[in-house]
Structure formats: C-alpha cells, structure tokens
C-alpha cells in the first residue's frame, strides 16, 4: 500500500519530557514522516497548532503549564484534527477522560515504536481516506475499499480480522511487523496469548492470496520476529 499520502501529513508532538519528545520525533522521521513538529507545553502547542495546522496531534496529559484535557478543549475551538493522548500506564481515568473529550485514541507510556506508528497510521487512514486503496500481490489484488481479494477471476471476501491484519501489513509494506504488534492491532491493549489465533488467521489469508499457501511469496514469515507483506508494483 502506498504510504506517501500518510507521510506528507504534519504531526505535532506535545510533551514536557525532552528525551521522550526527541525519541518520538525520531521514530516518526525514521518511518518517513516529512514534517514532525514538537512543543514542550500547552502554550507553545496551541500557538504551533494555530500557525502550522497539523494533521494529527499527539498530546501528553500532564504538561508544565496546564494539562492535556484543557489544551484539547482550547484546540477544539479552532481545529478538529485527530488527537491521540499520551497517558501514564494503567491510568484508566485519564484514558476515559480523554476519549470523553473526543480524543481519537490513547497510548500508555512507555510505548514501543511500532505501537506508536501503528496507532498513528490507523488514525490517519480513518481521518484522511485514500481513494480506492488497492494492493497488487503476486497473482492477486487486495481491494481494501471492498474488503475482498480478486484472484484468477474469483472474488474472495475478507473477514474483519483478515482485513485488519492485511491492512496493518500493507501499511508497513516491505517491513517486518512483529507478532506482538499484529496481535495488538487485532485484539487491542492486551494481545498476549493470541499467537496461535494469529497463526490461524495467517494460514487462512494465505489460502486466499497465495498460489501455493504452503510456499508463500507475498505474506512472508520472518522467523522469531513476525511477518511482512511483499507487494507488486
């Protein structure tokens, strides 16, 4: 899947921890995002949001000159871009409060780089839809707008889990996506214990997309790490 329309989106990171701010910015830049803005506090974040008009804001709950909830209320007076809250681990009240204000998602600190990227991709794709996204593989085409595979004159529907799994891999085309990241994409915040279920979904997907499911050329296993999807231009 072509990610160029995602990487052109402006991301604003708001956090008062310099090391975390730099780490998150480096993760996004290394992934391919062209414009990553940062702000250490509420006042500077509001100013940057007004001037730069980001496409997504990642916002810490605790800030030195206010809090993320108050800042989000302020942001909502002049922008409706998606917001992801950063919360302390297991702070359920913060998560609920953020979602109640209209936040699109939340991430608990500390977080894995892949988790941050997957959540950002998911939010951007929901907010800024690409026209008729299709992925060409060796011998078939995945049409994400219809949740189906076209293969040898047949149309094969995808289940919701198969769709999510393939979309997650397609967003990271050519890159390894870990087992943990895929399980989280499919089953949420507590993905542990789902590896066997993931393997079963992978087998069923291969039956739909591969010419020879026992010798896959598109959905590749990276032993000990995860999977990656090879597309055809």
UniProtKB/TrEMBL annotation:
<keyword id="KW-0805">Transcription regulation</keyword>
<dbReference type="GO" id="GO:0005829">
    <property type="term" value="C:cytosol"/>
</dbReference>
<dbReference type="GO" id="GO:0032993">
    <property type="term" value="C:protein-DNA complex"/>
</dbReference>
<dbReference type="GO" id="GO:0000156">
    <property type="term" value="F:phosphorelay response regulator activity"/>
</dbReference>
<dbReference type="InterPro" id="IPR001867">
    <property type="entry name" value="OmpR/PhoB-type_DNA-bd"/>
</dbReference>
<feature type="domain" description="Response regulatory">
    <location>
        <begin position="10"/>
        <end position="124"/>
    </location>
</feature>
<keyword id="KW-0902">Two-component regulatory system</keyword>
<comment type="function">
    <text>May play the central regulatory role in sporulation. It may be an element of the effector pathway responsible for the activation of sporulation genes in response to nutritional stress. Spo0A may act in concert with spo0H (a sigma factor) to control the expression of some genes that are critical to the sporulation process.</text>
</comment>
<protein>
    <recommendedName>
        <fullName>Stage 0 sporulation protein A homolog</fullName>
    </recommendedName>
</protein>
<dbReference type="Pfam" id="PF00486">
    <property type="entry name" value="Trans_reg_C"/>
</dbReference>
<dbReference type="InterPro" id="IPR001789">
    <property type="entry name" value="Sig_transdc_resp-reg_receiver"/>
</dbReference>
<dbReference type="InterPro" id="IPR036388">
    <property type="entry name" value="WH-like_DNA-bd_sf"/>
</dbReference>
<dbReference type="GO" id="GO:0006355">
    <property type="term" value="P:regulation of DNA-templated transcription"/>
</dbReference>
<feature type="DNA-binding region" description="OmpR/PhoB-type">
    <location>
        <begin position="132"/>
        <end position="231"/>
    </location>
</feature>
<keyword id="KW-0597">Phosphoprotein</keyword>
<dbReference type="GO" id="GO:0000976">
    <property type="term" value="F:transcription cis-regulatory region binding"/>
</dbReference>
<dbReference type="InterPro" id="IPR011006">
    <property type="entry name" value="CheY-like_superfamily"/>
</dbReference>
<keyword id="KW-0238">DNA-binding</keyword>
<dbReference type="InterPro" id="IPR039420">
    <property type="entry name" value="WalR-like"/>
</dbReference>
<keyword id="KW-0804">Transcription</keyword>
<dbReference type="Pfam" id="PF00072">
    <property type="entry name" value="Response_reg"/>
</dbReference>
<feature type="modified residue" description="4-aspartylphosphate">
    <location>
        <position position="60"/>
    </location>
</feature>
<feature type="domain" description="OmpR/PhoB-type">
    <location>
        <begin position="132"/>
        <end position="231"/>
    </location>
</feature>
């Amino acid at each position: 899947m072509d990610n160029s329309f995602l990487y052109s989106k402006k991301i604003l990171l708001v956090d008062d921890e310099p090391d975390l701010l730099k780490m998150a910015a480096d993760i996004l830049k290394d992934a391919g995002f062209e414009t990553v803005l940062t702000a250490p506090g509420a006042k500077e974040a509001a100013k940057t949001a007004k001037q730069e008009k980001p496409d997504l804001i990642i916002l810490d709950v605790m800030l030195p000159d206010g809090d993320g909830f108050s800042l989000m209320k302020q942001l909502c007076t002049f922008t409706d871009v998606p917001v992801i809250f950063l919360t302390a681990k297991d702070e359920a009240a913060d998560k609920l409060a953020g979602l109640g204000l209209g936040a699109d998602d939340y991430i608990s600190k500390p977080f894995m780089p892949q988790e941050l990227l997957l959540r950002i991709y998911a939010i951007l794709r929901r907010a800024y839809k690409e026209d008729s996204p299709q992925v060409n593989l060796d011998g078939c085409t995945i049409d994400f707008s219809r949740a189906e595979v076209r293969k040898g004159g047949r149309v094969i529907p995808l289940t919701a889990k198969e769709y999510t799994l393939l979309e997650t891999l397609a967003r990271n085309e050519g890159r390894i996506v870990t087992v943990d990241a895929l399980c989280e994409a499919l089953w949420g915040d507590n993905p542990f214990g789902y590896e066997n279920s993931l393997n079963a979904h992978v087998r069923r997907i291969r039956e739909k997309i591969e010419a020879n499911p026992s010798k896959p050329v598109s959905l590749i296993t990276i032993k000990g790490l995860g999977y990656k999807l090879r597309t055809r231009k």
